[in-house]
Amino acid sequence: MKSNSVTYSSLGAARCIALATCLAGALAYSNGSVDPISLTISSEGGNKSSPLLYGIMFEEMDHSGDGGIHGQLLQNNGFQGTSLSLTSYAPVGNVIISQDSSKPVSKAITSSLNVEVPDGVTEYVGFANTGYNGIPVTSATYNSSFWMMGNYSGTINLQLVGTMSGKIYADHNLTVKSTESKFTEFKTTFNTTYSPDGYNEWHLTFDGSKVGGSSLNFGYIQLFPPTFKGRENGLRDDLASFLDEANPAFLRFPGGNNLEGLEVDTRWKWNTTIGPVVDRPGRESDWFYPNTDALGLDEYLWWCEDMNMAPLLALWAGKSYGDILSGPDLEPFIEDIMNEMEYLFGDDSTHYGNLRAQNGRKKPWKVDLIEIGNEDDLTGGCESYPDRFNQIYKAIRDKYPDISFIASNGDYKCLPSPLPENVIIDLHLYRKPDDFVKLFNQFDNQPRNQSVMIGEFGCRNTTSPDGDYWPFMQGSCSEAVYMIGMERNSDVVKMAAYAPLLQHFDFASWSPTLYGFNNTPNSITPSTSYFVTKMFASNKGDTILSVESSAEFGPVYWVASKTDSQYYLKLANYGTEEQTVKVSIPGTKTGKLEVLAAPQYQGDTPFNAQVQTVTTSIFNSQGNYSIVMDPWAVAVLAVS
Fold first, then answer.
1. Which helix (H) or strand (E) holds 531?
2. Handedness of CA 71, 75, 80, 84 (dihedral sign)
3. Which of 112, 314, 336, 455 sits at a 20 to 30 Å CA gap from 495?
4. Within this chain, do residues 350 and 280 fall inside the same structural domain, yes or no?
5. Cβ 597 vs Cβ 542: under 8 Å
6. How large a percentage of the chain has pLDDT more than 90?
7. Domain CATH code at residue 210
8. Looking at the 3D structure of the chain, how many domains does it have?
9. Does 42 share its domain with 61?
C-alpha cells in the first residue's frame, strides 16, 4: 500500500499562516504559473508505522566521542595509543616533563607523566593540559581526578586558566599524601566562573621546594563539566541535551567503520570498554587518533536509557581492514560474543552478569536489536559474510531467541540464502541531492516480508575533497524527500539514521555531520539536516494514512500519519518555484506548522546557524489549511 503525508516549508509557510490562519480559515497565495496541489487526508485505515523509524548512528570519529559528547575534557589523559606522545601537555614553571613507560598507572594505562623538578626550585610548579584545542569553561561545578606516585605530602593546586589571557577561572587546593611505592587516585570538585572563549587549560601544580632534585609521576588525569543526567563518566550535558531535543528513537553503536578495526587486534572489543576507566587500554582507531574507550559498552547503554532510545548493538563479525576471519578461525571470537551476551543478559549468578553488577548495573540490560558486522558487502567481506553471519546468528539465536537481528548490508549476493526469517537488512547511502530524490519510491515495491534499516544516509557535496562541505538546503530537502519515501513505507522500513552524528570542527576528517561544535562558548551548530531530522522524529504518528491528491509526486512530496486524534503532515518542495498546497484533514482544527526553508545553496555553517525552523500556531474550524511553500522547503503540519 502506498500511503502519503504532508511536509512543510519555512518562511513561505510562516508567511501564509500569518495571513490566513484566523477563524475564517487559511487563504492560499495565488500563483499564476503553478496550480495549487490539493491533498485530502484519510482518517481511516492505513499501515502501521515503525515506532523506531528515526534514530541516530554513532561511531568515534571527528572527536565526536573523545573530546566530544563524552564529558572528559583532557586530551591524551592516559597516553593511550602510539601517536600522541606529549600532545596537549606543557610544563608549568621550572620543570621537565616526559612520558614515562617505566611507571605504568595500571596494566591498561601503561605510562604516566614524569615531572622532574631541578634543585633550588621554591615556587609551585607542575604541568598543564590544553584539552582538545582548548577547554570549555562555564559557570558550573567541575569534577577532576588524577593518579599520583612519588614522595609528596602537602597541597596540590588545580586551576583552569585562560591560555592567552592568563585569567584564572577556577583555583582549587586539595591536600594529598603520595608515596613512591604505588599510584594513588585523588578526586575533587570545584566551582568555575565563565570563560568568554575556549582557549583555556587545566593546570596541576605542587610545592616545588618539597620535590627539588627529584620527580613526581601523574597519570590518567580527568576533568568533567556537568554531565547529562548527572552520570558519572557521563556525556557532556550541552552536547547531549541538544541531541535529546531531536527525539531519536534508537542508537546504533559503536560504528560504523570504527567497529571493525584497521587490524583484527584493533577492532572494538567490548570487554576492554567496561569497568573502571583506568583499566581500559584504549586502542588505535580507524579515524586517525587513539580511542580511550572511556565511552564504553555500559556508557552507551546508559545513554540509551537516559534518552529513552532503543539500543542497536553492532557486533564484530570477523572483518577488519587488515584481515577477515571465518569458519574455525572465527569460533574463538564467537565465544567472546557469547560472553558479551551473558554480560548484557545474564543474572548476577553468572560470571559476566556478576561482572556487570560489579560495574554498577545489577539488572540485565534491555537490548532487543543486534547487528552482525558492518558493511560486509564492502572491503572484501562479501564472499564470506553469509557463513560468518550464520555462525554468529545461530550461536546467539539458540540461546536468546527473542533478539531481532540486522544483517550488515542489503546486497543479496553478500547475504545468506535463504536469509533467516525476520532478519532486517541494512542499507547505507551517501548521495548527491538529485540522486536521493530519484530514490523516493525505492521502497514502494519492497517485499513486505523483508524489513529494511537505513543504517546510514546523508547528502554530501563532494566538490571539495577535504574541505568543510556543510549541509545546505537543497541537500537537506533531498534527504527529506527520501525520508518521506521511507515513512510512506515504514511498515517495512523499520529504522533510519542520518550519519555521521557529530564533529568537533577542529578535528574534522569527514563532513558533513548532523551537528558540530568546538570548545568556544555557544559553538554548537545544527545543520539544516539536524532540523529536518528533528522535525521528522518529533512529528510522527503510529499509522501511515492514505492521501488523495490532485497531482503526482514532484516537485512536492508528502506523507501523512496519525496517532489517535493527532495528525501529522510532512511536505518537501524540491524545486525552484513556490508551491501552494491545500490540505483537508476532516475533524481537525488546531495545531502548529513548522517550516524550514532557504535558498538552494544556503545552509548553516560552523558557528553560524542562519537557517532555522519557523513554527506558527494555526486554527481552522473546518480542517482546511492552505500552505505556500518556498522553493527548497521542508515543513510539518501537526493538527488535532
1. helix 528-538
2. positive
3. 336
4. yes
5. no
6. 89
7. 2.60.120.260
8. 3
9. no
Measured CA to CA, the distance from residue 454 to residue 439 in angstroms comes to 13
pLDDT digits (tens, 9 = 90+) for 6-43: 332 222 222 233 222 322 222 233 334 579 999 999 99
Question: Where does a domain end: 198, 226, 254?
Answer: 226
How many Cβ atoms sit within 10 Å of the Cβ of residue 360?
12
Return the residue matching grid coordinates 506548522. 593
Cα–Cα nearest to 365, from 379, 384, 345, 382? 345
Contacts of 213 (CB under 8 A, 6+ apart): 117, 118, 119
Whole-number Å distance between alpha carbons of 94 and 355: 45
178 with 112, same domain: the answer is yes
- C-alpha 456/C-alpha 446 separation (Å) is 19
Q: Which domain holds residue 110?
A: 89-226
Q: In degrees rounded to 5, what are phi and psi of residue 278?
A: -70, -10
Which residue would you say has higher pLDDT here, 469 or 263? 263
Tell me if 83 is assigned to some domain: no
Q: How far apart (Å, rounded) are the C-alpha atoms in residues 367 and 337?
A: 14
First to last CA, the chain: 25
Domain boundary residue, one of 226, 248, 283: 226
Q: Are residues 349 and 485 in the same domain?
A: yes
Crossing angle of helices 331-345 and 351-358, rounded to 10°: 50
Is the residue at 379 inside a domain? yes
> Among 428, 432, 516, which Cα is nearest to 468's?
516
Which of the two residues, 7 and 601, has the higher pLDDT score? 601
CATH at residue 442: 3.20.20.80
Rounded-to-10 torsion of CA 623, 28, 562, 592: -90
pTM for this prediction: 0.93
